[in-house]
Amino acid sequence: MHLGIKILSISSVPLLFVLKWFWDDFTVTVDVNPAVVLVGQAVTLSCHLIGQVPTNIQVHWYKLERNKNTTLYFYNSTEKGTELFQAGDRQRIKGRYENGDVKVKFFPEQVEDSGQYVCAAKSDGVYQEAITQVIVAGFGSAPHLTIEHQQNNSTTLRCVSQGWHPQPEVRWTDSTGQNITAMAETRIQKDVTELYQIHSTLRVAETVSDTISCTIINPLLKRHRKKVIAISGFFDVEAEHDVITAIIGENAILPCRLITKHLPPSMELQWRKVGPGKDKTIYFYLYDESSPLVNTYPRDDKCSMGYLSPNGVNSREWLRKKYEKKAEVFKGKEFGKGNISLQLNNMQVEDEGKYVCSATANSFHREIITDVLVIGDLEKRMKEPREQMGDLEKIIREMEKTISALPAPTLYLSQTSARPGDSMQLQCSVLSQFLVTGVIFCKDGEEVLSQRGLEQKAIYDYSHVVSGGSSGNYSCGYEIKDSKNWVKRSQLSPAQRLRVTGNESSMTPATLLKIILNVRAFVEYWGYRGHVHMREKGGVWQ
């Protein structure tokens, strides 16, 4: 009896050792994705139980706090898979246990969610844990850059942004890229959510730079947001011609181009028809980067359209109901290039009149007026009785003006002075009411490149690598095919001069004359010496 008890006691020692070894045969590893999470975005904490995982196990995900740990997720296999979440956070935190993997997905709402997170696994007295780090950052709002005050050739600018963490860097630069932050007064402070707000003001002379930029940089994310504003306020609208002759039943394009180096933070564009008792808005487009806009026009007068929205909810566009199928403004890439021409479809006599294209921003207003003349088909009009046909010569002149006297395009050079090897860009701006079939680029009146025309394309580019022979006068032109399949060429654009510096010869007329005189003296001198030798040697050249 004693022997049996002793044997049992001895045999129980290896049994307990084996059981302990069996339950200890698992480890815990954790990872976090992403390593740095933005406020409001999702982060996933993964806990992996590696090895022989027991069936009765408890897994606890919690945030390590100084006073009291905060539970994110708790799993207990012995209570039919009970899952517990932090009170009130069921929508913000989602957890799942499956085959030894415990994943918790949650959405940090504030910087305080940064810290150490622990995954702890426990089974029959065996405890394993692993710790990971969650870093919460704030990539704040785009800078709201405005002109606060302009007086005596100086401008005061204000740059505001919020939602940053850790503390960001504020940088002001001029149009040359020079850092002028030292001239600014900047206040950076935390809000109730521990995110940083930026308020920075800068006062500069308008002669210093035509544009100023405000950049906010997150040092942890190595990312930034930037806004540029034109402090000179310069912009203009232009058209190649101020009179358009349209044919009844056909379409007409009223040209208008917005010229500006940088788009202002807010602007109003408008097309309207003017005249005695006829002043009415056809098209209206407004954007403001600082705040969402509301429809200020009555529903019975305008209808909303959505094909131009560069600033999303910060822009509004209206077209008078009468013109829903009648008119459209150039859209897409052409609008981005400043082409705000208006196309009127199915022209009728009542469409004749004056049309105004205007742009307004920062108290600056620019507009152009286009006269639209509408005539009937010439062949049809010629068959009508003389008293109904009106002045035939006037009709012919108008037709010739429309078809033959095509307005010249405009050529833009990316630079007017360059060195051999430089790359420069030539842009030909074409505003035509007919389909453009081809565009040519010329140097000193000779064609150097031709391109095929494309529908609704108004800007044609020519990339040129500068050489020593690139100096000269550049221009461009285009050809059209009208409704009767007549092909006509426009006049060439006003010439733009390109000057090549560096390896190009800089010989002046005075220098050339001096060289010619020296060569002449040299030739005369040696010619005289040769003549003397011939006389001395009996006419034999020595």
Topology readout:
Elements: H1 2-23, E1 26-33, E2 36-38, E3 43-51, E4 58-63, E5 70-76, E6 82-85, E7 93-98, E8 101-106, E9 115-123, E10 126-137, E11 144-151, E12 154-164, E13 169-174, E14 184-190, E15 196-205, E16 211-218, E17 223-230, E18 236-238, E19 243-247, E20 252-254, E21 257-259, E22 266-274, E23 280-288, E24 302-304, E25 315-320, E26 327-329, H2 333-336, E27 342-344, E28 353-361, E29 364-375, H3 378-383, H4 386-389, H5 392-403, E30 410-413, E31 417-418, E32 423-429, E33 435-443, E34 446-452, E35 459-465, E36 472-481, E37 487-489, E38 496-500, H6 509-536
Parallel strand pairs: 2-10, 19-29, 31-38
Antiparallel strand pairs: 1-3, 3-8, 4-5, 4-9, 5-6, 7-8, 9-10, 11-12, 12-15, 13-16, 14-15, 16-17, 18-21, 20-27, 22-23, 22-28, 23-25, 24-25, 26-27, 28-29, 30-32, 32-35, 33-34, 33-36, 36-37, 36-38
Biggest sheet, open or closed, and with what strands and sense? 7 strands, mixed
Q: Which fold name fills CATH's third level, the topology of the largest domain? A: Immunoglobulin-like
Integer count of domains = 5
Strand order of the largest sheet: 19-29-28-22-23-25-24
Radius of gyration from CA coordinates:
39 Å
GO molecular function: signaling receptor binding
Protein name: Ig-like domain-containing protein
Keywords: Immunoglobulin domain, Membrane, Signal, Transmembrane, Transmembrane helix
Domain Ig-like: 14-132, 143-230, 249-370
